[in-house]
Amino acid sequence: MMDKVELKVMGITYNPVQSGAYALLLREVDGPYRIPIVVGVAEAQSIAMRLENVIPPRPMSHDLMVSMFHAYGISLEEVFIYKFSEGIFMSELRLSNGEREISLDSRTSDAIALALRTGSPIFTTPEIVKKTGIFMEEKTDSPIVHKKHQKLEDFSVEELEERMHRFVEQEEYELAAEIQKIIKKKTSSNPDEETKNINK
Known about the structure:
alpha+beta, 2 domains, 200 residues
């Protein structure tokens, strides 16, 4: 049986080295290594929204895939990062419907976005950890604080405007438009907010 190392998602950070990219940081569960993985803007946004427990007004692609899993009785047993070659992490989804198990090749960013939504474990090999991991003397990390699930309607107008501008910068125009609708609804039902925005 192949040795496997379990990983946990620590968070997402902007990648200053590669323009338009973000770094997804994974940590070894029972060890000192941290693994940074470069991901694109859309994938970073999907992962970050899940880490922040923000519910979008309409399902994102990864939310839709999880809904399809549930509709067809499929469970994501685990994500396995099985190879690292030429700077690229290669992963597979290990799926089961209770009778049959299959493995599907997947981009690592997509696989992790799905794992976060299903609560599925993430594994890799000891070789990949040693090859790509950054050794950290401290084995403990401050845990990511997971807020309760929040709908966008629950945010203040200021918070919504900040997110809307962020989505526009990341060319997530559909989400930005949805947030703009929520802002209009909030300001039209709250004259004080509307006056505050006009006076900015």
